[in-house]
Amino acid sequence: MTAQTSATAPAKDVPVIEIRDLHKSYGPLEVLKGVDLVAPRGNVISLIGSSGSGKSTLLRCCNLLEDSQQGDILFEGEAVHWKGSGLHRHPADKAQVLRIRTNLSMVFQQFNLWSHMTILQNVMEAPLTVLKRDPAEVEAKAREYLAKVGIVEKCDAWPAQLSGGQQQRAAIARALCMEPRALLFDEPTSALDPELEQEVVKVIKALADEGRTMIIVTHDMKLAADVSDHTIFLHKGLIEEEGPPDQLFGNPQSERLRGFLSATM
Ligand code: ADP
Ligand code: MG
Questions:
Q1: Which residue of 96, 216, 231, 251 has the fewest C-beta atoms within 10 A of its own C-beta?
Q2: What is its main location (predicted)?
Q3: Mean local confidence (pLDDT), 203-208
């Protein structure tokens, strides 16, 4: 099975990702209790909230790494087809899952590079094996994206030979090499020392300036305030407050958000 990235871009006003009334449980534990999220093309959405509020779960539901029990997920206007219901609900169409997952590339807190592959091989792996792209073309793209994140000279190094900041930049190049419709970041700077954090923040800001569609889970309120078009504050599986970052950070309405911000900023 080959994942298709559709050749023609859909109408500009169709969001890349749209989530409606999403509910997600792990067994008896309801983690998302009816969440809506819209990521218009070219927008950066940041997700903030306390540990355990459901941020990672929401991100993983977006690209179908996790099943969900109720609600709709649309990728470029195309609704995910489900079979079963409740805890037995799963996506019905494997080709659709692959198409969505390959178009929503995830960058994880712990980088998750393959330790037995060089940096170049890491970046080339999925376009070669999942998308079955031409090796020479993929290598050229991989070098281009590694140059973009500033580590093309590390092509032949092993992940263990890189600093955390370099590994995370390699992971971003790997996500970019899939040429996805959107990038999903789950706390991309949380595992890094402050000085290394900044080199990753710089890359994320450059991607935002390019007009890429991104959803960023972050504990870094400055990053969220700087790059986002829209910020969502999640509390115990529900959206407690959302809006433009100026408003959320400058004039938070909910007591919980005020408490969260005073504890984190
Ligand atoms: P956040 O990313 O905001 O810290 P998570 O989405 O990781 O929160 O987790 C939300 C809740 O779901 C937490 O109570 C967590 O313990 C629980 N949870 C997360 N993943 C699993 C899992 N695989 N199995 C059971 N519970 C989980
Ligand atoms: Mg998390």
A1: 251
A2: membrane
A3: 96
- 26: Cβ below 6 Å to ligand 1? yes
Q: Give the tens place of pLDDT for each residue, 163-177.
A: 999 999 999 999 999
pLDDT digits (tens, 9 = 90+) for 33-74: 999 999 999 999 999 999 999 999 999 999 999 999 999 999
Measure CA 81 to chain center. 21
ipTM associated with this complex: 0.98
Ligand 2 centroid, distance to 48 Cα (angstroms): 10
Residue for token digits 């090499």? Answer: 177
The Cα-based distances of 80 to 5, 252, 259 in angstroms read 16, 34, 36
